[in-house]
Design brief:
It catalyses: alpha-D-glucosamine 1-phosphate + acetyl-CoA = N-acetyl-alpha-D-glucosamine 1-phosphate + CoA + H(+); N-acetyl-alpha-D-glucosamine 1-phosphate + UTP + H(+) = UDP-N-acetyl-alpha-D-glucosamine + diphosphate. Residues 5-130 form the MobA-like NTP transferase domain. The chain has nine helices and eleven strands. The chain is α/β, with parallel strands linked by helices and 254 residues long. The protein is globular and about 45 Å long. The longest helix is centred in the C-terminal third of the chain and has 17 residues, at 235-251. The chain has a seven-stranded mixed sheet with strand order 5-4-1-6-10-7-11. The chain has a single domain (3-251), classed as Spore Coat Polysaccharide Biosynthesis Protein SpsA, Chain A (Alpha-Beta Complex). The protein has helices spanning 32-41, 56-63, 78-83, 86-89, 108-121, 161-164, 178-184, 202-209, 235-251; strands at residues 3-9, 26-27, 30-31, 47-52, 68-71, 95-100, 125-131, 140-143, 150-154, 168-177, 218-222.
């Protein structure tokens, strides 16, 4: 079975306060998007699609012919970004990883686990989650109180006070059945606080459309180490990621 990957790298990263595209800022000496492509190449992914936007030519210059490119001209949200890869991936059978270009600390073994769970369960999708002490700013994982199944992912700005108390968060990383992914994407609307097309809404859409497989529509893999999912949006988070990277490197036996 084929494996594909969509790497989201179109954001402007205005909070980085830099002219350099966010995903080209280095962690451990390597641009963060490079870490992710290296790991995907180590998994023999059939086709890696990098979605570029703001200063995309610099990302293309760095990655060159190692990957395929899709362009998100308008920044309309993560679901809209993934949809730009339809020309390259639509109509294919297999599994598609969706990763964000600003999470360079994710381990290859974790990405492989995400893929393995989707393959084994044959479900429509798997989301990578983490349990954190301070979930502020992250999308919350809403589970059925009886079955434990993931039934929704709610962004911070749209969450109720009760949902904001949920400690399980969305890392922004998924693995989907490719055909289910592209069947569901057009059903995502932008009726939310940000007026963006959120990829997280795919959970509700898949349930409403009856897109499922295996035990349920969407499975979840919970990270053991939440540091793997650190997303980088500010210079402070970049410094934190570099500290974690060097600490991880020091723990690796020689």
């Amino acid at each position: 079975m084929e494996t594909y990957a969509v790497l989201l790298a179109a954001g402007k990263g205005t909070r980085m306060k830099s002219e350099l595209p966010k995903v080209l800022h280095p962690v451990g000496g390597t641009p963060m998007v490079g870490h992710l492509v290296n790991k995907l190449e180590g998994m023999s992914v059939s086709r890696i699609v990098v979605v570029v936007g703001h200063q995309g030519e610099l990302v293309k210059e760095y990655l060159g012919p190692r990957v395929h490119y899709a362009e998100q001209v308008q920044q309309l949200g993560t679901a809209h970004a993934v949809l730009q890869s339809k020309r390259l991936l639509g109509g294919r059978s297999g599994s598609t990883l969706v990763l964000t270009g600003d999470t360079p600390l994710i381990r290859q073994a974790t990405i492989e686990r995400l893929l393995a769970v989707q393959r084994a369960s044959r479900c429509a999708g798997v989301v990578l989650t983490a349990i954190v002490d301070n979930p502020t700013g992250y999308g919350r994982i809403v589970r059925d109180r009886f079955s434990g199944e993931v039934i929704d992912i709610v962004e911070e700005k749209d969450a109720t006070p009760e949902q904001k108390r949920i400690a399980e968060i969305n890392t922004g990383m998924f693995c989907f059945d490719n055909e289910s992914l592209f069947r569901a994407l057009p059903g995502i609307a932008n009726d939310n606080a940000q007026q963006e097309f959120y990829l997280t809404d795919i959970v509700k859409v898949m349930r409403e459309m009856g897109i499922s497989g295996g035990a349920g529509t969407l499975e979840a893999v919970v990270l053991g180490d939440a540091n793997e999912a650190i997303g980088i949006n500010t210079p402070e988070q970049l410094a934190q990621a570099n500290r974690v990277f060097h600490a991880q490197t020091e723990r690796v036996p020689h």
